[in-house]
Amino acid sequence: MKNDQNLNSRRTGTGENEDTLTNRQGHPVTDNQNIRTVGNRGPATLENYDFLEKISHFDRERIPERVVHARGAGAHGYFETYGKAGDEDVLKYTRAKVFQGAGKQTPVFVRFSTVAGAKESPETARDPRGFAVKFYTEDGNWDLVGNNLKIFFIRDPLKFPDMIHAFKPDPVTNIQNPERMFDFVSQSPETTHMITFLFSPWGIPANYRQMQGSGVNTYKWVNDNGEAVLVKYHWEPLKQGIKNLTQKEADEIQSKNTSHATQDLYEAIERGDYPEWELCVQIMSDEEHPELDFDPLDDTKLWPADQFPFLPVGKMVLNKNPENYFAEVEQAAFGTGVLVDGLDFSDDKMLQGRTFSYSDTQRYRVGANYLQLPINSPQKRVATNQRDGQSAYRVDTAPGRNPHVNYEPSLLDGLKEAEQEGQEHQPHYNGKLVREPIDRKNEFGQAGETYRNFEDWEKDELIRNLVDALKVCDPRIQKQMIENFTKADEEYGRRVLEGLDKAMEEMNAKEHTGSAGADSAVDKARKMGHEADPY
User: Fold this and answer.
1) Residue 492 marked ligand-binding
2) CA distances from 328 to 119, 337, 377 (A)
3) 105 - beta bridge partners?
4) Dist. CA 102–CA 89, nearest whole Å
5) Residues linked to residue 136 through DSSP beta bridges, in sequence order
6) Rounded to the nearest 5 degrees, what angle is found at the Cα of 130, between the Cα atoms of 515 and 441?
7) pTM (2 d.p.)
8) Closest Cα partner for 379 from 337, 340, 336?
9) Domains, the chain, ranges and CATH?
């Protein structure tokens, strides 16, 4: 069917050339400047078919933007496997074919994004950056969906909608307010580690090319024997390095360009300066690891690199820009549940919650048949019994099969189950079904360690940014945040307290709806505006 459509698209009608404009039905458009009216000043008539088709499609050109990760950019490229995990044959850990055979290349599409902002929000925002990679493997698609930072705010998916609501604009004023965010954060101590990263220079990467990526969640690798290990994924920039921005630098860039990261990525690829990342994994035995002071499935924590070293497994090169932003970047749909044989889920609670949410979101945004779009479709055969739904592009069945059979099992020449290759991984569970937090929370230990590992200028920037955001917050929120920072590190909490005390003395007491900087901008616009007479 797809080949037939491509053949039809090359045909030209009578009197047409290759550059003749047509409507979506293939009819030549002879006048694209004027609608049909009764006289050249008269009313329009209902049979303006070309106009009605054009405007009704225009009315529907936008699909619902992502609730999170709405602002994004993307590019095509390839992943080249090393065939090893560090110095060992990768087959020791996983039978996934994407990692086998040194030098083998797999096509990829990558979408970078900001998280909390809307589709046209500035790319200088203090915000995590999404880093999602779609591998078009020989066994079907694999999506590695993560962020630039290696940890997350929360560890339980039940809190995710509340967290995003707190980070998004006020439902009454439609203005983002740090008080809302810190109100949630202050009551969720597990966020302290992520907040420490976010309000440091690591919270504003210089661009998409010069930032790290991470799968964030804990997954599993499974070998031919069905044996599993826990694994974390990390993308480390190769030739382009890592760069972050201070708030002042970000403000200067934003005043001139709100799409600087999209432009940087596009232009680098156009001039042949292809960005590269090395994919590294951390591997841990699939156990509870009581020797650690945290649960290894807790995504608010880092695995110590000295105990669980970064093992290189391959590299990724981005070498082709999208031909159409909407068709590829905007409609690209990722899901944490999109795994191939040899890759598996861990019991990471956030991973379990994301696995439902991501694919469910794409069906709402793009439609039930979003996987038939070229950007999302696997680059291999697809044969399913799923049928129909809005915008069904083709029937995903195998050639030569009985088209009347859209179910399984069947004796009437329908699709058959595949044979299991390698032993199935079968984790064992023996416990009560409960609603309980994990035992080893250790909310503040790594946050303090991260603070102490920052360079002095990064600490200064962190304190400055936190004070600027917290000074417009309710005193109860300020008190709780200082308490949390102090539990992480005494100097950390003391410096935030001292900074806040000074800021509160200098700040004019007034009702606010946003940050102090936002309030100042409102005042400046009011005072600096130039008067004009009506016309």
Assistant:
1) no
2) 15, 20, 11
3) 80
4) 10
5) 141
6) 80
7) 0.91
8) 340
9) 72-372 (2.40.180.10), 444-507 (no CATH)
Which residue, among 461, 452, 472, 476, has the nearest Cα to 519 in the 3D structure?
472
User: Among all residues, which ones are annotated catalytic?
Assistant: 69, 147
Give the containing element (helix H, strand E) for 144.
strand 140-147
Kindly state the tokens that stand for 457: 């200028």
What's the full length of the chain, in residues?
535
Q: In this predicted model, what pLDDT tens digit does every residue of 270-317 receive, in sequence order?
A: 999 999 999 999 999 999 999 999 999 999 999 999 999 999 999 999
User: 3-state SS string over 457-502?
Assistant: HHHHHHHHHHHHHHCCCCHHHHHHHHHHHHHHCHHHHHHHHHHHHH
Measured between alpha carbons, how far is 219 from 205 in angstroms, rounded to an integer? 26
Q: Which residues 6+ apart lie within 8 Å of 69 measured at CB? A: 111, 113, 114, 115, 130, 132
Distance of CA 419 to CAs 221, 398, 422, 423, Å? 20, 17, 10, 11
For residue 129, list its beta bridge partners. Answer: 114
Phi first, then psi: give them for residue 186, nearest 5 degrees: -60, -30
